[in-house]
Amino acid sequence: MTNQVKIFDTTLRDGEQALPASLSVKEKLQIALALERLGVDIIEAGFPVSSPGDFKSVQMIAREIKNSTVAGLSRAVPADIDACGEALKVADQFRIHTFIATSEIHVNNKLRKSQDDVVEMAVAAVKRARQYTDDIEFSCEDAGRTEIGYLARMVEAVIAAGATTVNIPDTVGYTTPTEFGGIIRQLFERVPNIDKATISVHCHNDLGLAVANSLAAIENGARQVEGTINGIGERAGNSSLEEIAMILQTRHALYGLNTNINSKEISRTSKLVSQLCNMPVQANKAIVGANAFSHSSGIHQDGVLKAQNTYEIMTPESVGINKNNLNMTSRSGRHVIKHRLQELGYKDTDYDLEAIYSAFLNLADKKGQVYDYDLEALLFFDQQKH
Ligand code: KIV
Ligand code: ZN
């Protein structure tokens, strides 16, 4: 089995469909270019049949993007597949991603078809998509709640029909890591032709488990992960791709798996997506939150000043942030104040550390966070006294 994990980004499709306002064609292209720079393998640009605007943006992205495969989504019906093929055919390399639901809940209540009919529709969809390209992805919507025997039958049938990637979504974020990893493991055990396709996963975050479930799937043989930047998406969102990429990079010795992600582009891409989508990133969000590389307690600050890896498992530089941030609060020790003043250009002989530190603590007790300009004001007032 390959040690390369493909990263499939659906910020512009699953992410965008959850936004209060749609992105313009230009904004989508700007995000697609950032994703290409980041090194994602596949960019899902949209759902071409859904609106003329979506068709146009998928086409524009397909035309401009050269180093990532551009994909479009389609239900397992001819009109959707044809719209996808038409929008994407201007691309150097493209993928048609077609899907149908497989869980009993969806098959009985939404599709109102028999299981046999659904397999037939899936196979027909894959065959139709093959008239446009050899790169076909098929998704079993709500796979997380699908009976394993039927799921295995569907996976086998679509691979036989020509699907080169089969995606197993946990559409409603219902499964747990042990369960979801088990679904992937059982598919490898039950589906005889499974090695002819890449097994992909697409996890939603309703129980906060999207990244953990994706990782469990990788541990059991999945070699494509789908998700979005900053984890934006339907309801509680999708798997955060920056987290998946940094788990595989930081824990390379554990997994031995690689991606094509240029991690130094992560922060920049996250900020762009947050700004254009008008979706702020929570401060304590892993990898890209404002506090992800901030240290507040005096013990931690002392540690990172002595050796960065005492409290940082990856460097801020590795995700494209210039440096970590030592918050100056009443928990900070003298060494942090001294270090900050040094960075601001002051020599030890310019001030009395004990006097400045005691004034700093008084201020920090009143104010909470002390900033550079506060520190410089303390220094100025201290110098006035002499
Ligand atoms: O969550 C889901 O099941 C999807 C599919 C269309 C892949 O977004
Ligand atoms: Zn989804």
UniProtKB/TrEMBL annotation:
It catalyses: 3-methyl-2-oxobutanoate + acetyl-CoA + H2O = (2S)-2-isopropylmalate + CoA + H(+). Its cofactor is Mn(2+). It comes from the Bacteria. Keywords: Acyltransferase, Amino-acid biosynthesis, Branched-chain amino acid biosynthesis, Cytoplasm, Leucine biosynthesis, Manganese, Metal-binding, Transferase. Pathway: Amino-acid biosynthesis; L-leucine biosynthesis; L-leucine from 3-methyl-2-oxobutanoate: step 1/4. It is an enzyme of class 2 (transferase). Residues 5-267 form the Pyruvate carboxyltransferase domain. Mn(2+) binds at D14, H202, H204, N238. Its EC number is 2.3.3.13. Homodimer. Belongs to the alpha-IPM synthase/homocitrate synthase family. LeuA type 1 subfamily. This is 2-isopropylmalate synthase. It comes from Alteromonas oceani. The lineage of its organism: Bacteria, Pseudomonadati, Pseudomonadota, Gammaproteobacteria, Alteromonadales.
